[in-house]
Amino acid sequence: GQNIDQPTEMTATEGAIVQINCTYQTSGFNGLFWYQQHAGEAPTFLSYNVLDGLEEKGRFSSFLSRSKGYSYLLLKELQMKDSASYLCAVIEVDYKLSFGAGTTVTVRA
Amino acid sequence: GAVVSQHPSRVICKSGTSVKIECRSLDFQATTMFWYRQFPKQSLMLMATSNEGSKATYEQGVEKDKFLINHASLTLSTLTVTSAHPEDSSFYICSARDLGGTWQYFGPGTRLTVL
Fold it and tell me: For burial by CB atoms within 10 Å, which of A15, A69, A92, B35 has the most?
């Protein structure tokens, strides 16, 4: 099985930066996804990393270190609408996705 | 592109009845569809993997006779919750993987409430 750990909750103020860490253990790594999920809605794609390094996409960046089994999602210039749950998910060679429990980010004015 | 729909979006049923949820890939062919369940304040848990034209593969602890999955075409998979009970109340989400791809595209989810 997989073991994916991420913090349960984080709080930050509008305009600030927040970094959500994710550690994982898996047998057949084929990439790591970050998703955003608002209450009552399906997850929406934020980023995908399969090689080591940083992927930047606007205000969101994601980093991966395969040797350390570690990733982070960086949210910059936080906005109120960024309050949501952020899910770290590992995809294996059989294309199955395993999700972490999610990190609830609360952005305060 | 890569749109996945689910129907219905919300269903309320009585205990003991069966409920069918449809998952469709609208603009691509999906060799594989996945069904997830999400309880409040918890993450998505994979229930089963559905391949077109073959039997679904269920995750450990998921009853295959209770959660019937049919993947009759490259664009449609259905999940039937048989003899539903209140503990089956959950958010059910499907995803579809296109031919030869790594990505999964998620449907909008179905909120099931069993009274």
Answer: B35
User: How far apart are the C-alpha atoms of A84 and B32, rounded to whole Å?
Assistant: 28
Q: Across the interface, do B43 and A96 touch by the CB < 8 Å criterion? A: no
The minimal CB distance from B102 to the residues A31, A43, A98 is found for A31
Distance CA(A106)–CA(A85), nearest Å, equals 9
B48-106 pLDDT tens trace: 999 888 889 999 999 999 999 998 888 999 999 999 999 999 999 999 998 777 788 99
Task: Please give the Cα distance from B54 to B71 (Å, whole number).
Answer: 7
Which residues of B lie inside 8 Å of A (Cβ-Cβ)?
A: 32, 34, 42-46, 49, 91, 93, 95, 97, 102-104, 106-109, 111
